[in-house]
Amino acid sequence: MVEALKQVTFDLEPGVTAVVGHNGAGKSTLFSILTGRVPPTNGNVTFNGLPPAKVRAELGFLAEEPPFYPYLTGEEQAWYFNNLRENPVSRGEIRILLEKWGVPRAKKIKDFSLGMRKRLGLACAFLGDPRILILDEPFNGLDLEGQRLLEEEFASYRTQNKMLIFSSHQPERVTLLADHLVLLREGRLIFSGELKTLARQASRVIFYLSPDTSRQLLQLPGVLEINEKGSWITVTVAKEAALAFQQRLAEYGVSPQSSQVLLPELQALIDDATERGEDNGAGCTADN
């Protein structure tokens, strides 16, 4: 028998937690255990002392490749998943969610693009406004507008004392969106804690600004690089100059959409933590 996870113990707090690891690290297996789809062979998982089966009504889940029926329409598939819930919502609520995520109600899933399938999966995951939400690679295949919508949902889970757990192969997503980090390697826990524990060691900061921001305003000491990335201007600033840069923006009424430590440094820290990781005990709990 192959052990996908080995002696993994950590606590989860309200807010947004990123689960990071290379392929085969055990992320999908961990999510299957957290959602109660696969029982652990040893140890236990609890949410405020309750097993996953006892909180299923409060839990939403998106698999990396959701098991859709290709000849159902988007609304029929959402209605089917809804009827599997302990607390089904009304058809009207389903239609509101489908509209929010831009999913056509009457189109068959076999004719959906990859991005539209992901949007449908997200709409289904958010059924009933779950207090605990688990998303496996939610940004994969998602278009820019869908990414923006999802990022807004991340913000709501951070401010409403809920819990959102997601995995990603995009380190920039992790630093931009997560409060906490769980780092896995070959089924073992390498790091678990607040992301800022790693981030404070970085030497540069990247700011996301509106594309209509004056380039002249950005010509300041400490600015290392200016680029366009999707619908944003990204400005890379030396860490020691970041505060002065923010103050300059504020003087001109410019508010960054977000800021994050620059990924090369953080990625190096994650890789280093992976190399230095030690074994931990068994189990997993969540406080919320």
Secondary-structure blueprint of this entry?
Layout lengths: L10 E2 L2 E6 L6 H8 L10 E3 L11 E4 L11 H10 L7 H10 L13 H12 L6 E4 L8 H16 L3 E5 L3 H7 L2 E6 L2 E7 H5 L4 E6 L13 E7 L2 E7 L3 H10 L6 E4 L1 H14 L7 E3 L2
Parallel strand pairs: 1-13, 2-6, 2-7, 3-13, 4-5, 5-6
Antiparallel strand pairs: 7-8, 9-11, 9-12, 10-11
How would you describe this protein?
The structure is a single chain. With 288 residues, the protein is of the alpha/beta class. The protein folds into two domains: 11-198 and 268-286, Rossmann fold (3-Layer(aba) Sandwich); 203-261, YebC, transcriptional regulation domain (Alpha-Beta Plaits), CATH 3.30.70.980. The chain has helices spanning 27-34, 74-83, 91-100, 114-125, 144-159, 171-177, 195-199, 242-251, 263-276; strands at residues 11-12, 15-20, 45-47, 59-62, 132-135, 163-167, 180-185, 188-194, 204-209, 223-229, 232-238, 258-261, 284-286. The strands form three sheets. The chain has a six-stranded mixed β-sheet, sandwiched between helices. A hairpin with a 2-residue loop joins strand 10 (223-229) and strand 11. Helix 2 (74-83) crosses helix 3 (91-100) and helix 3 packs across helix 4 (114-125). It starts with 10 loop residues before the first strand and ends with a strand.
